[in-house]
Amino acid sequence: MFTQPPGDGRFADHGQGSCRSPTPTLKVTPVPTQYILTTAPGALPLLGHAPAFVRRPYEFVAGLPAHGDLVRLRLGPLDAYVACHPDLVRQLLTEHRVYDKGGLIFDRAREVFGDGLITCPASDHRRQRRLLQPAFHRERLPGYAAIMAEEIAGAIAPWRNGQVIDVPAAMHRLTIAATARCLFAAHEQAGSLPVHDSMNIVIKGVARRVMMPLPGLNRIPTPGNHRYQRARADLAEITRRLIAAYRAAGTDHHDLLSILLAARDDDGRGLSDEEIHDQMVTFLLAGMETTAATLSWAWTLLAAHPSVRERLHTELDTVLDGRPARHEDLPALPLTTRIVTETLRLYPPAWILSRVVADGDAELGGHRVPAGATILYSPYLLHRRADLFPALDRFDPDRWLTNSRPTPGTYTPFGAGARRCIGDAVGTTEATLAIATIATHWSLTPIPGRPIRPTRGSSMTPRPFTATLTRRPR
Ligand code: HEM
What we know:
The chain has helices at about 50-55, 55-60, 85-95, 105-115, 120-130, 140-155, 165-185, 195-210, 225-250, 255-260, 275-305, 305-320, 335-345, 380-385, 400, 425-440, and strands spanning about 35-40, 70-75, 80-85, 100, 165, 355, 360-365, 365-370, 375, 440-445, 465-470.
């Protein structure tokens, strides 16, 4: 028999002053009295559900709620559970010491992020979060937004009417430049910053590797694995050079790296170079890929929905009158903001995440889950539940008009609870400014051809696609 998950029914807000993406209230589904635990059908001998999970990850995961609320999978040698019901996701994310960072996705991600904020165990999380939170205070956003606005303007300055661009690549370049400058504004001190290529290789490598049910395959000396290891080493070298240059100069550049260098815990201890390195890589990778993917998906959705696009143009022309968007414009751009919210519903970049049952057996939704088990939760799965989001396939930014606070555990593009994204406001600010400034001047029309599909990996990003740029008449 199910008992209501412990906790007060709400997620703690650990964002401390970050301005959130809109948080809509959605129709509340009646809470079942008993949550159903089941094993997904279709397991193959030895491989279990791994082939279906790897070949068609999105369809496979989105189909799981039809089988139960807590669904057991066999992924090669690994047993995993997927929390399909919002109440169970809420319990999973609220009890962050019972369900710690780890499991299928994060054990592999640790290889790259080290013990940075996103991968560190619960035992060290509070200390890290308190040290890093000042970098994400609300007062810092206008400064970051000013850097972003410059980078957005710089990225689109060379665009020409009729030019064809690779949209995801262009959005990656833009967000890498903006994120890198917010992190280390004075990077010219450390010489040129060739982060772009290394970041791209590392990001793709991580996304692919974390979804590999047979981790041994990641160690085979293929050219791809070599490239990935080299890019990781290059990225580490770049951040080490930056840390050394900043330490030597001793100047406060009012950026994230300066904050990390100045951070002190209650005992007056600072972060070691190794810890700062892990945080830099975490912020670069966690912040840039997610925002780039959001932007790329937004262009595909706007291209496919001319009526929303026209209303967006009206909003932008009225508010901005042809100039680039600034931080202070955001409250006057509600439709642009809702477009970002709805894009994140349909295509949450961090679409699947994992936890591990940390210390002894646990009880999830009334069912025993063994110590060490991987529990997965998927914002994509939740956002594609018809009982939570009526007309779930429709790109409808106005669904967020009337409802302003979601039922906990339903809309989770930034996760929830103590491990909720620390950079949510940075990411949504950057996406909103970029859409506003770019759509003020340009329409992006994807070249017809194959449908635009997401890559297969832990990050839901579109496969490369091209679009023609058309300058908007003024
Ligand atoms: C649209 C943009 C973004 C999306 C969709 C996104 C998504 C997420 C999600 C889902 C989590 C929770 C992971 C979990 O439950 O295991 C997370 C955590 C995190 N994100 Fe983001 N993120 C975005 C932007 C950013 C930015 C811009 C930064 C930094 C500059 C950032 C840094 C982090 C960090 C450090 C964590 C770990 C927080 C903790 O455990 O305390 N993210 N993000």
